[in-house]
Structure formats: C-alpha cells, structure tokens
Design a protein that fits this description.
Strand content: 15-25%
Number of strands: 3
Largest sheet: 3 strands, mixed
Number of domains: 2
Distance between the termini: 53 Å
Strand order of the largest sheet: 1-2-3
Radius of gyration: 21 Å
Order of helices and strands: EHHEEHH
Number of helices: 4
Shape: elongated
Length: 95
C-alpha cells in the first residue's frame, strides 16, 4: 500500500486523488507515523465499502478486547466464575 504524507491532501489534492484512483487505497502518514487509511469508494460501491469498514472496526475492537482479557488472565476463568460475574453485573443493574 502506498504511503503519502497528510499534507499532500491539502497541498496537492489533484495528485492525491489520482494516486488514490490508481492505488485503490492509501496509507496517510502524519509526522512520519501512520495516521489513516483512505479507500477509493466509487459512488456505486460506497454503501458496501462503509459496511465493510464497520465490520472491520468491530473485528478490531473484539481483537483488542481479547488481547486485554488475555493480559489480565480473564481467558482462564472457569464457566462458574464467568456466570458469577454475569450474575453480579445483572444484580447491580436491577438493584
């Protein structure tokens, strides 16, 4: 994936658009660090692209939650410990 500096969007929008059209996706960097991924989304595929982006963000969030759970040792909880935690949360919501 081609990387371009953030300032290219502001200073050379035509070049940015041409590069995006040619590449299909661009990694945008800000002060030398990855900042964003820009996808070329033709108007006829915009809805599909937005749906896929939403799914990807959800998958990334789940992966992050799993990483945190492993780091905290929560992946080793027994089914009984999990149920106890669920019951405690439910009780706190109703009382």
């Amino acid at each position: 994936m081609k990387e371009v500096p953030y300032r290219m969007i502001r200073n050379e929008p035509g070049d940015f658009e041409e590069t995006l059209s040619r590449e299909g996706a661009i990694l945008v960097s800000k002060t030398g660090k990855p900042f964003a991924i820009v996808l070329d989304a033709a108007s006829d595929s915009l809805e599909s692209a937005m749906r896929l982006v939403s799914q990807l963000r959800a998958q990334m969030a789940v992966a992050e939650m799993r990483t945190i759970a492993r780091a905290q040792g929560l992946d080793r909880m027994t089914p009984e410990e999990i149920q106890t935690e669920i019951n405690a949360v439910r009780a706190s919501r109703t009382g």
